[in-house]
TrEMBL record:
<feature type="domain" description="Glucosamine/galactosamine-6-phosphate isomerase">
    <location>
        <begin position="10"/>
        <end position="206"/>
    </location>
</feature>
<dbReference type="InterPro" id="IPR006148">
    <property type="entry name" value="Glc/Gal-6P_isomerase"/>
</dbReference>
<dbReference type="Pfam" id="PF01182">
    <property type="entry name" value="Glucosamine_iso"/>
</dbReference>
<comment type="function">
    <text>Hydrolysis of 6-phosphogluconolactone to 6-phosphogluconate.</text>
</comment>
<dbReference type="GO" id="GO:0017057">
    <property type="term" value="F:6-phosphogluconolactonase activity"/>
</dbReference>
<dbReference type="InterPro" id="IPR005900">
    <property type="entry name" value="6-phosphogluconolactonase_DevB"/>
</dbReference>
<protein>
    <recommendedName>
        <fullName>6-phosphogluconolactonase</fullName>
        <ecNumber>3.1.1.31</ecNumber>
    </recommendedName>
</protein>
<dbReference type="InterPro" id="IPR037171">
    <property type="entry name" value="NagB/RpiA_transferase-like"/>
</dbReference>
<dbReference type="InterPro" id="IPR039104">
    <property type="entry name" value="6PGL"/>
</dbReference>
<keyword id="KW-0378">Hydrolase</keyword>
<comment type="similarity">
    <text>Belongs to the glucosamine/galactosamine-6-phosphate isomerase family. 6-phosphogluconolactonase subfamily.</text>
</comment>
<comment type="pathway">
    <text>Carbohydrate degradation; pentose phosphate pathway; D-ribulose 5-phosphate from D-glucose 6-phosphate (oxidative stage): step 2/3.</text>
</comment>
Amino acid sequence: MHHELDVVADPDAVAGTAAAFVARLARACVQAHGRFTFAVSGGHTPWAMFARLAHEDVPWEHVAVFQVDERAAPDGDPDRNLTHLRQSLGAAPAEVIAMPVNDADLDAAAAAYGRSLPERFDLVHLGLGPDGHTASLVPQDPVLEVSDRPVALTAPYMGHQRMTLTYPALARAQQLLWLITGADKREPLSRLVAGDRSIPAGRVEAAASLVLADAAAAGRSPARVGSQSRAGP
């Protein structure tokens, strides 16, 4: 898997560059086939990106937002990715297809969510943990070996069981967009771009991949990178 790496100064620049990238891609996809399918992970950087998207030209009425992963927690819980996603979207009229993590039968709910997924995603956003995890594909979890379904459940991780897209679902992405910030991501970032499949993130495959990282994650001085990126879809 080849990753295009784009390094900008700081998390704010990552959020702004990502927002401009998403907006351009959304407009192009809606013009080409009438809809923009976008799967989103949790984390502070993507929420900041959505806040910046509010100031971009996005055809929201033709945007469908899916979740990459979600904690099994009540509606409105601050641990839920959906809570922050909805706050970040504000009044934007995007369709949000939420993971049904409150259903009594989570296995059936995961299967139903899998059936709701598109045959391809125009864009999938991913983050990267210090341990090399992405989505809720974490080291040692049996979910890493699930290949027969697009959505599966994890073992409990940091206090919650989670629902996550599996590698086959992530492979439906026409474009991946990784948002990676912070010095604690330096080692996993270097392993990701080197194609190290021993970390969960290194096993993700898709048609194309752009990694937007800040200077701290890339191990560079902020003064030696631009505050804005030239990344384009």
